[in-house]
Amino acid sequence: MRPLTSQDPRAVGPYRTLARLGAGGMGVVYLARSAGGALAAVKVIRAEHAADPRFRARFRREAEAAGRITGPWVVPVLGADSEAREPWLATAFVPGPSLGEAVGARGALPAATVRALGARLAAALATVHAGGLIHRDVKPGNILLALDGPRLIDFGIARHPGATALTATDAVLGTPGYLAPEQASAGPVGPACDVFSLGCVLVYAATGRPPFGAGGAAGVLFRTVHEEPDLDGVPPALLPLVTACLTKTPDARPTAGEVRDRLMGGAPGSPGAGGAGAVGGRDPREALAREPMPPALWALPGLPALIAERSAAALALPDPDPNPAPGPQVLLPDATPPDGAPPTPTPTRRRLLTAGAVGAVLLAGGSAAVWNTTRRRTGPSGALPTRTIGLHADLTGPGRATGLAHRRGAELAVADHNSRTGQAFRLALRIEDDAGEAARALRVADQLVADSRVMAVLGPTGDVLPEDVVLRYGKGRLTTVVVAAGVTTADSHANLPLCVTRPYDRNLGPALVSYLVHSRPAGRILLVQDAADPERGWQLGSSFRDATLTGVTLTEHPLPEGESGFGPAARRATAVRADAVVYAGGSPSRAARLAAALAAEGFTGTRVGAGPALGPAFLRGAGRAADGWVFAEAYADAAVLPSAEGFTAAHRRRFGAPPATWAAEAYDGVGLIARAAAATSAGGEGREGLAQRLVRTEHPGIVRTLAFSPSTRRVRYENGIFLYRVERGRPRFLGPYGEV
């Protein structure tokens, strides 16, 4: 760390700068502190680069890509601003040495440590590649050593395969000696180039030198492309795998997941080392690679002392200027003290920096790190206790976009809660990824139930809430708050500790009835019930059949399965001179075919459907015929919701993007849990009493007030169903159906 110069900013976005961590041709990296006291590494791009609009667009795209990368062995992106005069990107600060520093100071690592290190780095890359990204600069300097394992950093150049680099077209991007032959020759790159780089790192860690020698960049690049690596000194057990990683042909290299599995297969105590094989059809080595490094393998001489020394150096930094240059201020909802309350006291620098340094090391490590954090919060007398909320999400599977939205909304809610005065406890998150897989979801439920620190769970985050997961949490009497699921396979059980904060898809119909009665009155309605989705079609249709529609003629038309029924349905609409057509089904592609058929018949009346039919397939398939359609959904657009303005601003500043679907609802879900937990603590109830307290709690959320019917224990739907109208190929938020 170096002191700030007179030219360095004293504030970058919501962060106050403390010291310089490094500088290069692209910009400067600062050690900074957030308003909540957490330390961050903030990379600020030089203004001359930002003057290029194409650069800003690339930076924005790559910052958003980096923000999607999650996992125990990658350092998380905390926020970014691509629109600032000098764009910046913030990541968690890890006060540990790089692998290059450690090996350079103390020499090669033991073979068992290299194997465990490689397995976790491969696990990190497998997560990156599963998200459609590549790192492109895996090297010892971009691997930091924390107390529980390595951290892969510097995703400033992470991108979708084939995306434009931040450097000029065809330029070599990476570090000579650790980049793949296809990178060295400026050819097309993909995930295999990261595997090659990982092989180089393993050689360096095992021998203390890179496999293609040292010296000038041109010579190293030539050897990388044309010569075989120097593998003398690589442990025999690692040699076959390292050789496979360093194959010149990308397609011949193993994947990152295969590297992870092969390294875990020979680790002490792993299944491949004489233990049991796959459990439930899934190789348990993947889970082992997510666990902290075993102390026997991670007892690196001097590492704890060096981390402590660097943390102490951070503690010794002078306070930043208390009056930094003015910049945009973010105030989360309800963050202001109550009327008459004194201002929030400023914590001491030592307490803030200690929490930031330890938290940055531990929180970057996934669920195990959260356990460590909660253990350390049993401070001196008077310190607030910590209550943990589990997040059960799909973060790497088909529903990862919704899972990430949940995670971001929950993280903002936890930060907001912990920033307020007068709270009875602090909040922490334990995050578990089920990858959208049924068997893994049950294992996640078992893990969260077994952790006595977890008072409630937010999730699962999938579209369908499965009965076996509901029952697994019910058996453990662990309250679950479900935000996004539109369908459930579970029966209603009054004794289950389950709280669903949204109306299911089958309950969206009344909003469409209201729209056609009050907002766009229709005297003749054609109900097109889709036989390809009979259950949802019948449920939505029942909303119209059961409604008392005075002066309205309701005509039903079945839409048969297959591709031949859309034209007849459209012609029926014109034959009965319908004022409105209702699509009673949940298929976006079939809704698009109906929209196109209606447009071809010249139908200009009102067209409505339920949210499940509103998706990319509808917008693409219908084209211009999609414009004017109105859909009922259970989520709001926080970016245009006045009550969520503060949340949206905070989300943009922390994550560099507006809130995605379900992020604001997840924020409210955490707020509901915290409010109910405060009342539960006051009443002397424990974990089992929280579910009963939840349905007796009314929480004024940023999307809407969450309240429940005492008799049915179900959430009240007032202002909980929202309408969207497609305009110019994009859905535009209209607001709660009762206010449209």
TrEMBL record:
Composition-biased stretches (Pro residues): 335-346
Keyword Ubl conjugation listed: no
Location of the Protein kinase domain: 15-264
GO molecular function: kinase activity
UniProt keyword Nuclease, yes or no: no
InterPro entries on file: Kinase-like_dom_sf (IPR011009), Leu-bd (IPR028081), Peripla_BP_I (IPR028082), Prot_kinase_dom (IPR000719), Protein_kinase_ATP_BS (IPR017441), Ser/Thr_kinase_AS (IPR008271)
Region called Disordered, residue ranges: 252-287, 316-348
Superkingdom of origin: Bacteria
Binding positions for ATP per the UniProt entry: K43
Keywords: ATP-binding, Kinase, Nucleotide-binding, Signal, Transferase
SUPFAM superfamilies per UniProt: Periplasmic binding protein-like I, Protein kinase-like (PK-like)
Biased composition (Gly residues): 266-280
Pfam families (alphabetical): Peripla_BP_6, Pkinase
Transmembrane segments: none
Protein family according to the UniProt entry: Belongs to the leucine-binding protein family.
Name of this chain's protein: Bifunctional serine/threonine-protein kinase/ABC transporter substrate-binding protein
Organism, as annotated: Streptomyces cavourensis
